[in-house]
Amino acid sequence: MDNLTPAEIKALKQEISASLHCALPGTVESFDPETQTVSVRPALHLSSPSSLPLIRDVPVFFPGSRDSALTWPVSAGDGCLLVFADADIDRWFETGEPEGPATGRRHSLSDAFAFVGFRSKVDALPDLPAEPSFFGLSPGQVHHTHKAEDITSGVFPLERGGSGQADTGFTTAASEVADPGTDCTISSLQFAWWGKVALLRVAVRKRTAVSSDVTTLCTLLPGKRPKYDAAAQWNWGSGAVVRSSGAVQVNGAIAADSTLFIHSTYILE
Amino acid sequence: MTDLNRTLSIFADGEPVTGFRHARLTGRDALGLYPMPFTLRLWNLAEEEYLKLEAAKTLAVLHGNSVLACGTVSDVYRKTIPEGTLTEAVFAAGLSLWEAPVSLSVEAGVSVSETVRRILEASGTGIRLLSFPGNDPVRTRGQAFSGRAAECVEEALSAAGARGTLTETGLCVIPAEGLPVTVTLTEPELAGAPAQAGKRLLLVRTAPVGWPLGKAMAVKWKNESGEGLVTERSIDADNLEGNWQAELLMEIHNS
């Protein structure tokens, strides 16, 4: 370094920093729920070359632990933050075990992780609630509190080793109802299960205040590959490990003060 | 080392450069795709030959039929000295690949060799992959390449534990396990015993020809011998005066 001029040192620093990737904003182009990876188009254009390439097979961050996770739908157009690992993550991604890197690459575009949910100013969430929101997981139970005056908190009573049926009701509020007669979404009904499941069927039904009729009219946005059947139920196969949460999207008009029931039939190993 | 035949032949874009009396070639080259420059100095080069050199994109310096150095011209300049003029041309193999920017996304399930082919194609340099001996693993995840094409090729090759080197005809891949020995140097071809430091062996040759950079080579001297890969070479050759220096650095695999 002693022999380098200040201009050469500056050029050297630029050369090194240009090839060392740390973090970039990006836009999701596609999501693979099977591998829980996204393809991302970097949202910054660096000087050379002018545009960065599509980055494929990027693991998505869903917060959680080994036996639980908080998931949400990921779609094309979602904003995200890409963070680049120190070394090649291919072998780790295949096995989950600590292994030596498959290549000598460092801070490469190929070794990104995605934090979905980062937004630019133009995509900022409208009407961000000022009220506190809480979502918690504990073994066999899910706790959710959101705008306490609107929706009652729910505890999903699944115990490890238990079996039976359970209904957990949530009362909708006027603010949750879209224009009556049209589709609406109640995305704040969060739920989760974990444990090794021998059988778990889930359906979301509603009971109106004036009628005891039970109508199945929901769309479950799955976190862990459940199979949907014609009866609007999601079936997990025997032996499946369910560690996921999801959101309920209700298609159809719901009157205020209706009660939505998440109905489950389950046997946990 | 003194070579009785000191002739240096110079070709600019394939055309012979003449009109000089004194020429000197110095430089160092190494296995890999980082372009290491050679410098050709020509004293009192005729004006029309200087213009030819200045306009040239490629330069090659030969000794007999052996290519001592060739590559893309990066700089040609001339200065006045007491004896007349001194023209200096700086050139390097692989400069075009080094300077070519690429931005490329490769899907999962593609082999290393195919990845390298795609990077070379995206570079627009016309450099092609000559062969891919040895392990050619298929990548399980997608890859994204951005930046200098040469560095992208090296990154891709590292998945096979391989390295690359450029020749006049294209990119040669040197697999991790090495290649069969194709060259043997014996004592009469060496200027003294090789100097060994760990797994590296420095050889000084008696003639600056036949440099198999990236090829496996066997060396025999006195009661010792070794096999390895030539990873570096250097030259200092003057067509009029001084000793010629021709050094090879070998990575020893067994000795």
Question: How would you portray this structure in words?
Answer:
The complex is a heterodimer of chains A (269) and B (255). Chain A is built from 2 helices and 20 strands. Chain A is mainly beta and 269 residues long. In chain A, the strands form 5 sheets. In chain A, strands 11, 13, 14, 16, 17, 18 and 20 form a 7-stranded antiparallel beta sheet that branches. The radius of gyration of chain A is 23 Å and the shape is globular. With 255 residues, chain B is mainly beta. Chain B has 3 domains: 85 residues, Baseplate protein-like domain - beta roll fold (Phage tail proteins - horseshoe like beta roll fold, Roll), CATH 2.30.300.10; 78 residues, Phage tail protein beta-alpha-beta fold; 72 residues, Archaeosine Trna-guanine Transglycosylase, Chain: A, domain 4 (Roll), CATH 2.30.130. Helix content of chain B is 14%, strand content 45%. In chain B, strands 1, 2, 3, 4, 5, 6, 7, 12, 13, 14, 15, 16 and 17 form a 13-stranded mixed beta sheet that branches. A two-stranded antiparallel sheet of chain B has the order 8-9. Chain B has a two-stranded antiparallel sheet with strand order 10-11. In chain B, strand 1 and strand 2 form a beta hairpin. In chain B, helix 3 packs antiparallel against helix 4. The longest helix of chain B is centred in the middle third of the chain and has 12 residues. Chain B is flat, with a radius of gyration of 20 Å. The model of chain B has no long low-confidence stretch (mean pLDDT 89). At the A-B interface, strand 3 and helix 2 of A face strand 8, strand 9 and helix 4 of B.
Question: Would you summarize the structure shown here?
Answer:
The complex is a heterodimer of chains A (269) and B (255). Chain A has two helices and 20 strands.
